[in-house]
Specification:
275 residues; alpha/beta; Nucleotidyltransferase, domain 5; 5-stranded mixed β-sheet; 10 helices; 5 strands; 16% strand
Length: 275
């Protein structure tokens, strides 16, 4: 791990009906609603269909978004330079190409991964989809016994904020949106994970990608607070990183999701000052 860059990532998924039919022994003649209802019962017979979150193996990736951040060193502290926030591939990219691009990027750049619940969900989904498509990678052979992408407690390789901020679930689980609300960041605005499948069925892939990018930015902002609290960056570096994020948003206001994010953040600041 070169310790020269951060790679903040998030994925959006839809139910994998093909996998569900295979596991449940349901033919193609059975409609989608029945398959999803049966899949929900398979996971938890006592919950309503809409309350069930499927296991990683029943998810199909429709978007992978990420932020690229350069790490500079200054007197033992890190300075973070935001380079870009974008989505992998194109609107019409095949899932296999998205998966291949993700692992190819990590293999070539060896960044510090940053996610929110990435160790429990995002990475397992990506691994399982890589298995499906026969995509190989060398990322699991990097590092040593205690410092690698598989080591749960090696935050310099993969910083899963959900695990770290809850002391590895000793404090229970919390949603990214909840952490953003406490920290004063916009969080979810118009879309959340529960609406992604409806957007997909309407072929609104760009809207899904846009939403995924805002989740990446929320994750990065929370990471900055974590890095400040843990002494990874100092107050000056934190302020500079926030300024860079605001500049990024202002420079990309022509994109609706960034304009809404900036406006929402400014409104939060105004309300805080008024209070």
């Amino acid at each position: 791990m070169t310790d020269s860059s951060l790679f903040v990532f998030d994925i959006e998924t839809i139910p994998d009906l093909e996998a569900a039919r295979a596991v449940l022994g349901m033919s193609d003649a059975i409609n989608e609603e029945e398959v999803l209802a049966a899949l929900s019962k398979y996971h938890n017979p006592d919950k309503k269909t809409e309350d069930v979150f499927y296991k990683p193996i029943f998810h199909k990736v429709v978007a992978i978004s990420f932020a690229e951040i350069e790490i500079m060193k200054d007197k033992g502290k890190e300075q973070l330079i935001l380079k870009n926030i974008r989505s992998g591939g194109k609107v019409d990219s095949k899932e296999s190409d998205l998966i291949k691009g993700f692992f190819h990027y990590i293999e070539n750049n060896m960044p510090r991964l940053v996610s929110y619940n990435g160790r429990s969900f995002d990475l397992p989904v990506l691994k399982l989809r890589a298995l499906k498509y026969g995509i190989g990678t060398e990322i699991y052979n990097l590092g040593d016994k205690w410092n690698n992408y598989l080591q749960r407690y090696s935050a310099n390789w993969h910083c899963d904020l959900h695990e770290i901020l809850t002391d590895y679930y000793a404090a229970g689980k919390m949603r990214l949106n909840e952490v953003c609300a406490v920290a004063g960041y916009p969080g979810k605005i118009d879309v959340d994970g529960s609406t992604v499948y409806d957007l997909y069925k309407k072929n609104n892939i760009q809207e899904i990608r846009d939403y995924c990018e805002t989740d990446v930015l929320n994750t990065y902002l929370v990471y900055l607070n974590y890095a400040l609290h843990y002494g990874i960056i100092n107050k000056e570096s934190f302020a500079l990183a926030i300024t860079q994020v605001i500049s990024f948003l202002e420079n990309n206001k022509q994109k609706e999701h960034w304009s809404k994010f900036l406006n929402s953040w400014e409104n939060l600041d105004s309300n805080e000052r008024a209070a």
